[in-house]
Amino acid sequence: MTQPTTIRRVPGPRPRLPELLQIVLTLAATGVPVLPLRAGKVPFGNCRRCAGNVCGGRPNMKSAGPCRCPGVCHAWAAATTDPAVLTSPAWTAAWRRAVTVAYHPGGAGLTVVDLDDAAAVAWARETLPVTRIVPTTRGEHWIYRGTMSSHNAVRPGVDIKSTMAYARYLGPGTGTMADLPDVVRALAVKEPSPVRPAPQAVVVPARAGNGECPHRTPAYLDRGIAMAEQRITEARSAVHATVFRTFLAVLSTHGRCGCLTDTHIARLFTAAQSKGETARHCMDAWTNARTTLGL
Question: Which of 9, 19, 63, 180 is the most buried (most CB within 10 A)?
Answer without folding.
Answer: 180
